[in-house]
Amino acid sequence: MTISQQDTYELNNGVKMPVIGFGVYKIPEEQMEATIGTALEAGYRHFDTAAFYENERALGDALKKTDVSREELFITTKVWNDDLGYEETLKAFETSLERLQMDYLDLYLIHWPIEGKYTESWKALEKLYKEGRVRAIGVSNFHSQHLEEVLSFATVKPMVDQLEYHPQLAQKEMRAFCDEHEIQLEAWAPLKRGAFFDDPVIRELAEKYGKTPAQIVLRWDVQTGVSTIPKSVTPERIQQNINIFDFELTKEDMERLDTLDTHERLGKDPDNFSFDD
Questions:
Q1: Exposure check for the chain: N or C terminus, fewer CB within 10 A?
Q2: Other C-beta atoms lying within 10 Å of the C-beta of residue 207
Q3: Feature table: binding site for substrate
Q4: Which member of 9, 25, 44, 53 is catalytic?
Q5: Which residues make up each annotated binding site?
Q6: How far is residue 55's CA from residue 27's CA, in Å, rounded to a whole number?
Q7: What is the CATH number of the domain that holds 23?
Q8: Which stretches make up the NADP-dependent oxidoreductase domain (predicted)?
Q9: Is 53 a catalytic residue?
Q10: Would you say residue 180 lies in a domain?
Q11: pLDDT tens per residue, range 69-97
């Protein structure tokens, strides 16, 4: 399965999304410029943020200071739970766009499926998409029942579902559901903050391929057809995380990694979550 750093996944509307991106969750404002500069130099062109991260402006500032053109970039942000609803989402979009200092977004996502609110937000995303304000729209942390509700009334099919995804949470049912409905799966927390790097299978494969545990996991991501957005502020790791295109995991080794699936989460379960605690 030959994949290159420049390769993309084609979304169901024809828009092409990079197979690997760069997450900016919890990157402090004062570190953003140097971190983004390092990421761009390493070859990242997809940057994933969210209103909730409170660093959209810092990301926009950092990108403005580079010589990489807007057309070369793929920028994702997300509407937070407090801004769900039709008019609220439209307003939140304008706020995010202003913070990012951009004229359009490449991908806009509903961050969480807050019951009773996300359907109206989806209608707002459709409006933004039809007006050409965003090139692709999708969701984050949506399970099949949430997506089925959206699909029951949508005039524009979701293009992306961003889920927690790593070998210990392989999301096989959601992968099958998304494949069936031509929705691109994207991985957040793909490295689970290194929580399983000491696993014997990961360590053995890292030694076998001469790669880091993170590189083994990220290669597994892209070989399963999932877009992935690792995050780091360490220059060496930023470079290592994108250096996954000069080797290929065998079918047998992919299957060994599949056996690590224990359904263990780092974040909240979309089927049972609350932000009140």
A1: C
A2: 11
A3: 111
A4: 53
A5: 111
A6: 8
A7: 3.20.20.100
A8: 26-260
A9: yes
A10: yes
A11: 999 999 999 999 999 999 999 999 999 99
